[in-house]
Design goal:
With 549 residues, the chain is α/β, with parallel strands linked by helices. It has one domain. Helix content is 45%, strand content 9%. The protein is built from 20 helices and 13 strands. The strands form three sheets. An eight-stranded mixed β-sheet has the order 5-1-6-7-8-11-12-13, sandwiched between helices. Strands 3-2-4 form a three-stranded antiparallel β-sheet, with no helix packed on it. Strands 9-10 form a two-stranded antiparallel sheet. A hairpin with a 5-residue loop joins strand 2 and strand 3. Helix 3 packs antiparallel against helix 4 (90-100). The N and C termini lie far apart (59 Å).
């Protein structure tokens, strides 16, 4: 009898706890009850191959990438020179494809959309691995395989979120996603939350994501690369986007020589001629070499494809141009079509509907880098992956070397929209999807491993009230990274200390005539290899695979 009363008391207590709305969380008397769990959807993550001997390798993110590529370039140089001399690129394209495709052979998606066994990201989860306890300093990280269909990723993400809810006792989560991780997040909202009143989500935070597409993917995967002289010049001034193959070219007298040479060519028209020659060479190899290489990995990785917006049909025509491709890759194309023609068109409506239901949608964009100069769009403000307009779904940006025109600024002032224009007059946020819930950080460089960004995401995630760009003194609409460490964002000013000054060059004194000449000769010798790297589009491959954690 006593036991029965004890069990009855426990049952009544449990009923009262759940009836009060607190659920399991309040019954645990844990600190985590005060904080809604935050699910952080990662960006790109390196793909691993688990070898038979138990070792793990990373085919396109290994430490030997640079030396391996350089050897390929050197080996193929005679074939390229022969192709240029004879205007017949067939042999070169075939040899180049056979050489480069070996990089992707172990991780290429199968034509039916399945993935090779023993490959994938070095991350997984099980219900047992999901902790119940969390606090204001912890996120539930979610990592995915870039090759998978965003809607299939959404299935796994849904299971992950349901497990988190069950383990923590919370009925909602905060979704924070960055880079290309925003695309599976949209797929999740479309598939699981749209018809559910977004019941499982408290708010969404999108950090310089791919919802509007990625500039470089748009043009590379659609075969529409066009090298621009201004873009190439400013790309060199920014250290070639931080690509490993060009490290060291942007500093000291060597950098001065490069920049001055490019500037002279640009102002005299010579750089335009050079770009024209490169564009003509690209036209010779883009179908028989590049399209085939891209089809092996980037062009058949479904989350990569989801970042295509305006050039989707051009992408299909370009990547699947060989006889039998449409039939062979029908499963991949069908999934890509579904995302493009069903999910993507609902993007703005989903986000607006969610926000209108008092489930705030926040955006963080960044700019300050010249993107790889493969299109006119690459000259607009943004980071090395995408324009600010794409990251924020509509912000208006100037070119990286200019500002919004006086006529434009005065027109916005007349409309009472001056407050949405950045102090440096390079960005106007009034034109984006959520003008009052979009923050812009200059000089963040698409970086995630900086304390300033972590603090801001935590603030947006754990502040229960709806926030706007006017809510927090520390986070006005326009911010700046004051130094490389970016420990704390600072409010943007008309001229920040760390702004990129595209109008001038910081020139170091020449150590001595002989030193300069020696370095110039070394540079010229090395430039032959570097030019070929550009021609062979290796820098494009490096850019696509550059980790975006």
């Amino acid at each position: 009898m006593k036991k029965s009363k004890k069990y009855l008391a426990l049952l009544l207590s449990a009923i009262m706890i759940f009836a009060s709305g607190g659920g399991l969380c309040q019954s645990l008397a844990a600190d985590h009850c005060a904080y809604t769990p935050v699910v952080y959807i990662h960006g790109y993550k390196a793909l691993a191959v688990k070898n038979a001997d138990g070792t793990v390798t990373y085919p396109i993110d290994g430490s030997d990438d640079s030396s391996r590529t350089t050897e390929m370039v050197k080996a193929l140089l005679p074939d390229l020179l022969k192709a240029i001399a004879t205007n017949n690129y067939d042999d070169y394209c075939e040899k180049a494809y056979q050489s480069v495709s070996s990089i992707y052979k172990d991780i290429s998606p199968n034509p039916d959309g399945t993935l090779p066994e023993n490959t994938g990201v070095d991350w997984s989860w099980t219900p047992a691995s999901v902790p119940a306890a969390h606090n204001a300093n912890s996120f539930y990280t979610y990592v995915f395989d870039i090759r998978r269909d965003p809607l299939e990723i959404a299935d796994d993400l849904h299971a992950y979120i349901e497990t988190i809810k069950a383990k923590t006792g919370h009925d909602k989560v905060v979704l924070a996603s960055r880079c290309i991780g925003t695309n599976p997040t949209l797929a999740y909202l479309y598939k699981y939350e749209r018809d559910n009143g977004y019941a499982d989500v408290e708010k969404c935070i999108f950090v310089y994501g791919g919802l509007g597409g990625f500039t470089h993917l748009e043009h590379i995967l659609s075969g529409k690369i066009k090298i621009t002289d201004d873009g190439l010049f400013y790309f060199s001034k920014s250290g070639f986007g931080g690509l490993s193959d060009f490290e060291g070219m942007g500093s000291g007298e060597l950098g001065e020589f490069v920049f001055e040479t490019l500037d002279m060519l640009r102002t005299t028209g010579g750089l335009n001629v050079t770009c024209s020659l490169v564009n003509k060479l690209y036209a010779k190899i883009k179908d028989k070499f590049l399209a085939r290489v891209l089809k092996d990995y980037y062009g058949t990785s479904l989350t990569h494809i989801s970042a295509m917006t305006g050039n989707y049909e051009a992408y299909k025509s370009y990547i699947f141009q060989e006889p039998g491709d449409l039939r062979k890759y029908a499963a991949i194309i069908e999934k890509a079509d579904y995302y493009h023609y069903n999910v993507l068109p609902q993007r703005d409506a989903i986000l607006k509907e969610m926000d209108a239901m008092d489930k705030p949608v926040y955006f963080i964009g960044d700019y300050g880098d010249q993107a790889a100069p493969i299109s006119e769009e690459s000259n607009l403000v943004g980071d090395s992956y995408s324009t600010l307009a794409r990251q924020t779904l509509g912000a208006t940006g100037s070119t990286v070397s200019g500002t919004l025109s006086n006529a434009y600024v005065n027109g916005q002032k007349a409309k009472g929209l001056e407050r949405y224009i950045s102090p440096d007059k390079q960005a106007d946020v009034s034109t984006c999807l959520f003008p009052d819930q979009t923050w812009v950080v200059k000089n963040l460089h698409h970086d995630v491993n900086v304390p300033g960004l972590s603090r801001m995401i935590h603030t947006l995630a754990f502040t229960p009230e709806r926030l706007t760009v006017n809510s927090l003194e520390d986070y006005p609409q326009f911010l700046n990274c004051p130094d490389a460490n970016c420990a704390q964002f600072v409010p943007a000013q008309e001229k920040n200390a760390n702004d990129t000054d595209w109008g001038s060059l910081d020139k170091d004194a020449v150590d001595g005539t002989f030193s300069f000449l020696q370095k110039m000769l070394d540079f010229l010798k090395d430039l032959l290899i570097k030019i070929y790297n550009v021609i062979s589009m290796q820098w494009v491959v490096d850019m696509i695979k550059k980790p975006a954690a």
